[in-house]
Amino acid sequence: MATHCVNLSKFFKITGIRHQSKQNRGKSFAFSAPTSEARQLEALTVLLHGTCSQKCLRALHARLAVAGAIRDTSVVMGLVQRYLSLGKPAPAASLFAGAYRGRPTVYSLNLAVRCFSDHGFHRELLDLYRELCAFGSDNFTFSPVIKACTAVSCLRLGREVHCRVLRTGHGGNVGVQTALLDMYAKAGQIDVSRRVFDGMVQRDLISWNAMVSGYSLNGCFLEAVEELKEMQQGGMRLNASTLVGIIGMCGGFEAKDVGSSLHAVAMKYGAIADESLTSAFISMYSAFDDLSSSRLVFDLQPVKDLVSFNSMISAYMQHCNWKEAFEVFRLMHCTGLGPNLVTVVSVLPSCNDFFGINQGESVHGMIIKFGLAEQVSVASALVSMYSKLGKLDSAVLLFCYFTEKNNLMWNSMISGYLVNNQWSMALDSFCKMQIEGVAPDATAIINVISGCRHTKDLHMAKSIHAYAVRSRFESNQSVMNALLAMYADCGDISTSYTLFQKMEVRMLISWNTMISGFAEIGDSEASLMLFCQMCHDEVQFDLVTLISVISSLSGSEDATVGESVHSLAIKSGCNSDVSLTNALISMYTNCRIVEAGQQLFDSCCFANTITYNALMSGYRKNNVSEKILPLFYQMVKNDVKPNLVTLLNLLPVCQSQLQGKSIHSYAVRNFTRLETPHFTSAMGMYSRFNNIEYCSKIFSLVGERNIILWNAFLSACVQCKQADMVADYFKHMLFINVKPDAVTILALISACSQLGDADFAACVTAVILQRGFSAKVLVLNALIDMHSRCGSISFARELFDSSVEKDSVTWGAMINAYSMHGNGEAALDLFSTMIDSGVDPDDITFVSVLSACSHSGFVEQGRTLFKSLQADYGIMPRMEHYACMVDLLGRTGHLDEAYDIVRSMPSRPSDNLLESLLGACRFHGNSKIGESVGRLLIESEYGKSRSYVMLSNIYASAGKWSDCEELRSDMEAKGLRKDVGVSLIGMT
């Protein structure tokens, strides 16, 4: 092109042209026969069309100006065209205005307007029109000007043009009217568009399409469908432009029948082959969750373009069908089509959500091959992919490679740090982002807020809130909702509620966040209050609202409210959702209405793993453990895969160690990573079967041991009567600087109680006092019990007297201490003091005081206490209370009264209770009652020799040798033998 600039003089003689008169120049350029100058000008015009740089174009423009050719229309429009093609609208406008000295002909103006419109310089077109419109306009002027008003959303100027159209008498032109109705439709004034359309005398296909498109654009689905029917009735032949807009609306309005009809219409009119319709139908069927139809439309397209491939990939990705999306991507590659930005941004999430690093790196290589790696959106997607795959170093490397980073890139990196639990790095990136001059947007703020929710750092949460306020994000609903959730997760629900009250516009998600926040802390009253206020403000609740309200209800007093919410769910049509069913099952079982939870489970057609877990947890909480294993067998039979929560429900109810081992083995085989609850639950299961060896193995295999695991292992040692191990592991725990908590101390105290070593008890007490645990009531109660079991009843009383805060357990522990030491009088006195101090005794306290009466033989006091148990305190007597009374009456010889209590019990008496009464009968020589009690024992305890021996001894003491002989014969017939006695005398 530089050569062109140098050799311009070869094409014409400037001097020859310069000395011609203006009149002759005009004639020679416009009308004369092809003289040498005209031929030179024609050659110069050809050269003009080949000019590809701004520098050459300016040089050529100067030569033409010197030659006096600027007034020739073809030359002027050629220069304008070249300036616009090079992206320079300002010189083009100046050239055009100057060439005609501000007075162009309508023809020239139309050429310029069309040229500016074709190159997309709409604002410059409107500026030119404002300057030159006074010199005339016609139909060919108005259409591109109106389209420019539509493109830049300048409705005010569009109305002015509309008025000029009507004044100049061009309002009946079809092209102008079509442009006007399109402008009003895109400005949201569909009623004005309709008036323009109704005023059209003649309507062509473009006009009808514009009207249908306008209705589609404004969400008027039914009107668009009616307009389509009217088109068909008028004999119009529909094309792809007619259908594409309305097809896109079918998915949003769930109009599957309409969508299928439109598909048939497209096939009827032969428009189905259009590429835009193929993509539209793929997306439409995807919105109907009908991916098979989407794939059929895709497969039937004879020649697939990039847009079709992108639509099919996007459809699969929206439904999380990662494998199928990647297969379509492979098919696209095999057909020779190169991906574009949309393709790779769509397909990359399949690598981090389904495939893995190998496929991700392959896609990355393809991105580099096709030159897309420099695109910021692609790089951001790659950073996100590598972060989610755990390759944070690769993500950081990609991030650092880009010198000019926008919000999208920074947000991807911050999100990547959060995914990998690098909270400090995420916050550091947030700060660097501002230092480098990139102002954080709402997404960046929300990302940092989510980090605060994860770490529960309230101080940092308040700092981020302050930044959001300072940066004027208070009007952003998404940021405000994130702040509500952040404060709720950080345990500051009061601040969250204050922020909620200050919100001018409360969206549904705002209400749900607050209701859910109060539900998580168990404040059902606040959740219900907000729900009622929400309904009063006419905010329509959704499924999440109902689940949040239901999850807040956990007490028996909430059952009535729960049933009301359940009725509301049925009325609103949400009861068919399995998530709501799961929440209702948990609610009913938490409210101790297990039958309702069972009925809901039986009526659920699509019970999933969570449904089974909800009912299992309900059985466990309501002590219906015998139903858990049959429910698990049903779960396996129905091919519902158990998860880790299922195993947590199963381990505590295993009926044998073999069952427990099987469940534990299943967890190890099928889950790559077990969490702390599973280790603790497994140790609890093995400790129930006294298998401390397996507990030790599990504990030793855990890499990172937190305080919960230490406590679980120490508790297992206590349950397996391995008190020495507790002391040793506690010392090791202190040596490696693991800070004990109250649960650790309670396990240590229990171990000390098992040992009964007063010196060790004193050491444990010193550790507790040194570390400040004595202020906790639970620890103090355990200390009182420990010292009483180690024989230090006086120190136990000192601890009791020194306690500022005493609950019923504290009083019960001291009463039980006196009971164990046989001091019934002190136990009764302390019980009276407890009543006088206003503390109501619980059922365990009554067990302790009745036991004290039994050990001391206080019959009258025992009778009085037993009667007051239910009469004065509303406590239903348990087996332990009956056992204490029977033991008291049996010891003191009141056998008839004791036997009356046995017969009046609401449930079958325990074997220990019957054995106690049988021993008393033998001691007091009452063979009649002894025989009745012995028969009860034999019937209930088939297969044990102890009951037979005790009854046989009673018969022998009463001289009933025949009955004794018959009983021993029966015992031998059943293959029962008396346990061999062992003497400890003389044993070392």
TrEMBL record:
- InterPro entries named among the record's database cross-references: E_motif (IPR046848), PPR_At4g14850-like_plant (IPR046960), PPR_rpt (IPR002885), TPR-like_helical_dom_sf (IPR011990)
Q: Is Cytoplasm one of the keywords?
A: no
PPR repeat boundaries on the chain: 204-238, 305-339, 406-440, 608-642, 706-740, 807-841
Q: Which domain of life is it from?
A: Eukaryota
The answer to keyword Repeat applying to this record is: yes
Gene3D superfamilies assigned to the protein according to its UniProt record, in alphabetical order: Tetratricopeptide repeat domain
In this record, what's one Pfam family?
PPR
Question: Sorted alphabetically, which keywords does the UniProt record give?
Answer: Repeat, Transit peptide
List the PROSITE patterns hit by this protein, alphabetically: PPR
Q: What is this protein called?
A: Pentatricopeptide repeat-containing protein
Species source reads: Urochloa decumbens
**Upper lineage:** Eukaryota, Viridiplantae, Streptophyta, Embryophyta, Tracheophyta
